[in-house]
Amino acid sequence: MRRVVITGAGTVNALAHDVPGTWAAMRAGRCGIGPLDIADLDRLSVRIGGQVTGWDAAAHLDRATITAADRFAQFALVAAGQAMMQSGLVVGEGADCGVILGTAGGGLQTSDDSYRAVYAEGKSRVHPLTVPRLMGNAGASHVSMAHGIRGPVFTVSTACASSNHAMGLAFQMIRAGALRAVLTGGSEAMLCFGGIKAWEGLRVMSSRACRPFSRTRDGMVQGEGAAVFVFEDRDAALARGAEILAEVVGFAMTSDATDLVAPSVDGAARAMTGALADAGLAPGAVDYINAHGTGTAANDRTETAAILQVFGPRIPPVSSTKAMHGHLIGGTGAVELLACLMALRDGVIAPTIGFEEADPDCALDVVPNVARQADVEVALSNAFAFGGLNAVLALRRA
Amino acid sequence: MDLQQRVIAIIAEQAVLEVSDVTLDSTIESLGIDSLGLVEAIFAIEEAFDISIPFNANDPAQSGFDMTSVAAIVDAVQGLVAQRAA
């Protein structure tokens, strides 16, 4: 089997519009969550989010692309462009390369705007490109076209685990020798009236802040943005002298098969154990876990129990960066993989900010509020989705 | 049907029980309603009475409304309906 490495990374999120800026913010423990600026805000009870501010699509994309691309696809395009630039990957004919991206809402902004136009404003027509803008695979298709990637190109949609499932598949396909390189990660732009209104209904959102693992936590806060990586066959990367950011060594996915929204210890624990087994690593080898850590009462309690079950006496530091960039839903695992890369490359563990008070149900070292220097050789990234779907990636220092 | 009967009917439907099986003393837990079921019941009550109950499933205490028993829910709805009328 082939080995798989990461040779490029790009992102747009609430913390920054690139990777260096995101790492600087994570290192500083800066919060990107703030008051939302969207239409009909006065009819929402949740008015905060990790919104991408100062987004100037025209600074990155040509006019025709902007017209054709929903916000989630624009984020994917820009993040992918950064990753390709850093990687220096030569696509060539492109049939041995792929694009696998995660998203949960797809072009939700386009749907929201179009529904508003026909239902609320009484208009009789919508923009001719409404369908190609809102389709879930739009981000992957745009990235494919921008870089001439002509192999497998598709989108994975597994709610909050979408990105991890996408990156796990990319890893498996390269490892199996089916592809030389894959642009993979995820993107989401759900911060519109309908997107937030739907989440309000579940009554799991905080109107104050995201405080993962803190006793005072009272729910999740949504974010938006994208992160895209170049996953590449290690031999090919070495042969062309590419800089290797980290190695992807394991992946596992499980299903709870119990409840649509309530998380399960068993499903989460099996996903972590599975990723370690896939990587041929013992639990004791893990130096950092980037938690799913949504800041809901149920997730953080259940995830803690699963981590205790898997790691027993030696529990590594665990942090949730959602308190900084918000929960990017289908894009979240991708942005959170950046925290793993920072830990592996720079020896800096991003903190869990917003932490106020220890919770006996979350008895973990959550790296509260302040980043920490640490020697991190192996990192895990957890994603546990509604629908009971779990996906965990294991990374090793290059 | 008075307010109490309407609330009980909504809760009974959510619990998949006969109305006669739901009393003021019943707790949400004893009726077998899980957290998502409670969220659905609250939604149905809000729609029925045109009120808004600021209930957060992460921190039920934060809303200031006790949603653990049928009697407490009836009290809360009575209060909110009176507020709306005022």
Instruction: Assess the beta-strand content of chain A as a share of residues.
Output: 15-25%
Number of strands of chain A: 14
**Oligomerization:** heterodimer
| Major sheet summary line of chain A | 10 strands, mixed
Please indicate the count of domains of chain B. Answer: 1
H/E topology pattern of chain B: HHH
Q: What's the pLDDT, averaged over the residues of chain A? A: 97
Order of helices and strands of chain A: EHEEHHEHHHEHEHEHEHEHEHHEEEE
CATH superfamily of the largest domain in chain A: Thiolase/Chalcone synthase
The DSSP helix count of chain A reads 13
Describe the fold and architecture.
Chain A has 398 residues and is of the alpha/beta class. Chain A has two domains: 4-239, 3-Layer(aba) Sandwich (Peroxisomal Thiolase, Chain A, domain 1), CATH 3.40.47; 250-396, 3-Layer(aba) Sandwich (Peroxisomal Thiolase, Chain A, domain 1). Helix content of chain A is 35%, strand content 19%. Chain A has 13 helices and 14 strands. Chain A has helices spanning 19-28, 63-68, 71-87, 108-120, 130-134, 138-147, 162-175, 193-202, 234-239, 265-279, 297-311, 322-325, 332-346, and strands at residues 4-13, 34-35, 48-49, 97-102, 153-156, 181-188, 225-233, 246-255, 288-290, 318-319, 348-349, 372-373, 378-385, 389-396. In chain A, the strands form three sheets. Chain A has a ten-stranded mixed β-sheet with strand order 5-4-6-7-1-8-14-13-9-10, sandwiched between helices. In chain A, helix 11 (297-311) links the parallel strand 9 and strand 10 (318-319). In chain A, helix 3 packs parallel to helix 6 (138-147) and helix 10 (265-279) packs across helix 11 (297-311). The radius of gyration of chain A is 20 Å and the shape is globular. Chain B has a single domain (3-85), classed as ACP-like (Non-ribosomal Peptide Synthetase Peptidyl Carrier Protein, Chain A, Orthogonal Bundle). Chain B has three helices and no strands. Chain B has helices at residues 3-15, 35-49, 70-85. In chain B, helix 1 (3-15) packs antiparallel against helix 2 and helix 1 (3-15) packs across helix 3 (70-85). The radius of gyration of chain B is 12 Å and the shape is globular. Chain B starts with a helix and ends with a helix. At the A-B interface, loops of A face helix 2 of B.
